[in-house]
Fold:
Amino acid sequence: MANERDMKDMITDVVVVGSGGGGMVAALVANDLGLKTLMSEKTGYYGGSTARSGGGIWVPCNYLMKQAGVADTTEEACTYLRSTVGDRSPRASQEAYVRNAATMIDWVRENTPTRFSYMPGYADYYPELPGGKPQGRAIEADLFDGRQLGEDLATLRAPYIEMPGGLAFRAREFQKIGMVMRTWEGKATAMRVGARVAMNRFTRKKLLMMGQSLIGGMRLGMKQRNMPLWLNTSLKELIVENGRVAGVIAERDGQTVTLRARRAVILAAGGFEHNAEMRRQYQRQPITTEWTVGSEGNTGDAIQAGMRAGAAIDLMDEAWWGPTTLPPGRAPAFHVGERSHPGIIMVNQRGERFTNEAASYVQVVQEMYRHHTADNAHVPCHFVFDQRFRDNYLFADLPPRQPVPGRYLKNGYIRRADTLDELAAQLGVPAANLKATIARYNDFARSGKDADFHRGDSAYDRYYGDPTVKPNPTMAPIEKPPFYGVKVVAGDLGTKGGLMIDEYARVKRADGSLIDGLYCVGNNSASVMGATYPGPGCTIGSTMTFGYIAARHIAGRAT
Structure:
């Protein structure tokens, strides 16, 4: 539209608030079902937390699993969600997710430039539970040449960790690169990625990876359809007429605009991780907006607007948690694979282990909060590792054997000491406890059996482990000086509580009635995954799937 910026009022069929994975799918599907659709984005960059993410998508019964010979059924997947999520989300919503996720992915690959790959071996996070899959149900978007986006490449939200120019890899390649010092497969993968970097620079490709590649392909799909995306357009209020949501009042480039929706408004605007007041009100303490890697525009605007319209809320105390450290001068480091590498543990302020470090990142932070007390802090706690670990494995942005930058030592981000007594003093933990903890852990590492927390028993634990380390690929003694310690906080990928929805993503009131014309997907809704994280990519998988469901329901095509 040539005069978009001059318009103060707009009438359309569907208004989608937010431009992450769920919003993109909802807008595309609604458009292709004949509904005139407008997408608005609060910030000057589209893609939301999806673009910042690792880009995994948890999809039961997907076509790539079938091609890989990994059997799955809707019954198994529903059983698994009941085993992990339980009654913290409606069973009807869990079943809707399972029924529609694979169909949604088929639709995206058939109707947009986005293509996908399987992530073999990336296990469900609780593969031992009924219905769990040790081979996993996760897929990821293939690398995508951002040059296809033209001028819109400049407004694609950046990942939370910026990569050097030309560097692009798939998540499954990253897992192998983590073993570059340990396995031939790791070395070969690093060489392939290095060759890709050289070729990208020669050809001037702008390869996007992970969450950016997913968003990039769908954004190109929108461009091919000439679908409007309004940046710098923030939701201020829902328009409610006779109990029905009829549009939104927004602010665009300093002007108030009215976006009226003949059929529905879909809220896909992210959580409230950057709203300090809401985090204090609803979440466990200590907490801060400084520990999250979620998109900075996620301040809970849509949740608050929905509440004012009468919506009920749930799961507001939860987030997509993950152990996080705070390197100076860069975004928080969200630690996934390192926790499964042999020779690293987590200790509380008494210098004691308290959890299986290699478990699901959500579970680990929940354990941090569960054990946290005034006289024994677990938030924050500490990573502890030795020089052997540094010689062999990546930590945050530090490749193996790279000297620790002086600024990291000066800032105190990384503590280094020649003895465990000295390290304990730097961390402020009892030296006797720390030495006893490490001695006990070392005995477990040599035997291969973690009698305290069962580290390495799960297929998920072993996914990021070192296959050259025996008998337990996730454990090795901590004994080679110098020793290192790093403060760990309760970070997150975003909050996961919000407006309560039904199996069609329709927003509910506290009495169970529905708010006509209002749908909600993603992190501004109460997650179908409840208080847990069943598998890699559940956050993106759920927002995309319910975006698909919402659009089809609005168009009268619900299944």
